[in-house]
């Protein structure tokens, strides 16, 4: 299977950067979101990401115009009729994904590989929203944020995934400089099950009054070698996503992956993280931590 043209559904932080890494590897990419203003905003953000990368020596001056020229934008899935691989990267909501899949089912070519960037939902369950003939072409490709920097991709095989599809998608990830690992289709996959178990214990320590979030973040950075601490990371990925994934894990594994009360409180209070001005910490209008 040859993968040349890429479609990415969802122009948020994850989707736009997935589009970027494929564009930097000289793939033609179509980035789609229903709101044109949102897509335009994503393209400006990618320009800023490239500029910052050039300044830090990650990219050359020639990379920026080449990558941007490789990305087309769209506001409708009808633009995906000729793509070889489409990656869905919309909100972590099964019904929203399913509604999009039914639209894709009607326009994709028969041999198109379809992947979800879901961080927790069963790939086999998601594949059921497609017609039976397409289910063999459906897999999970879970990229990590920020996609432009993080090398890991979890490749998740559903019950009916064709081994040749898995092989082709894995090779496509390797070709753009990623390091894929193979994971069975279990809810939460591998990394998030480990991560949320750690987050659960970190939040317990705060709820017990044993440590502050800041002290735990410092301990994880300096004692465990993590680039950011758990509470910083929750604020960066948003408390909203943390809550949604935690609920999915709790539904699958019960009290073993119980959603902590403080996460529920932060979510209900609208304290959703860095981009919202407040999560575990406070941030200014530029996203800089102020307390």
Automatic annotation (TrEMBL):
GO terms for molecular function: 3-hydroxybutyryl-CoA dehydrogenase activity; NAD+ binding. Residues 188-283 form the 3-hydroxyacyl-CoA dehydrogenase C-terminal domain. This is 3-hydroxybutyryl-CoA dehydrogenase. It comes from the Bacteria. Residues 5-186 form the 3-hydroxyacyl-CoA dehydrogenase NAD binding domain. GO terms for biological process: fatty acid beta-oxidation. The record marks 142 as: Important for catalytic activity. Keywords: Oxidoreductase.
């Amino acid at each position: 299977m040859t993968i040349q043209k890429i479609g990415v559904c969802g122009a948020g932080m994850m989707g736009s950067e997935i589009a970027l890494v494929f564009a930097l590897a000289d793939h033609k990419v179509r980035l789609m979101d229903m709101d044109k203003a949102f897509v335009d905003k994503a393209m400006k953000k990618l320009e800023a990401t490239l500029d910052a990368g050039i300044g830090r020596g990650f990219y050359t001056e020639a990379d920026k115009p080449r990558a941007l020229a490789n990305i087309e934008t769209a506001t409708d899935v009808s633009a995906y009729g000729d793509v070889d691989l489409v990656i869905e990267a919309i909100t972590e909501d099964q019904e929203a994904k399913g509604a999009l899949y039914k639209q894709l089912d009607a326009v994709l070519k028969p041999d198109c590989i379809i992947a979800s960037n879901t961080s927790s939902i069963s790939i086999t369950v998601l594949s059921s929203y497609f017609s039976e003939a397409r289910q063999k072409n459906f897999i999970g490709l879970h990229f990590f944020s920020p996609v432009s920097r993080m090398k890991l991709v979890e490749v998740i095989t559903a019950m009916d995934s064709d081994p040749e599809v898995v092989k082709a998608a894995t090779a496509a990830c390797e070709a753009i400089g990623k390091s894929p690992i193979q994971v069975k289709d279990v809810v939460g996959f591998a990394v998030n099950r480990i991560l949320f178990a750690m987050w659960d214990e970190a939040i317990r320590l705060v709820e017990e009054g044993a440590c502050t979030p800041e002290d735990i973040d410092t301990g994880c950075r300096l004692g465990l070698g993590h680039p950011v601490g758990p509470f910083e990371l929750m604020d960066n990925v948003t408390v909203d996503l943390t809550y949604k994934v935690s609920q999915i894990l709790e539904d699958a594994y019960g009290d073993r992956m119980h959603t902590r009360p403080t996460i529920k409180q932060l979510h209900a209070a609208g304290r959703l993280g860095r981009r919202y001005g407040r999560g575990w910490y406070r941030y200014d209008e530029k996203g800089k931590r102020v307390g």
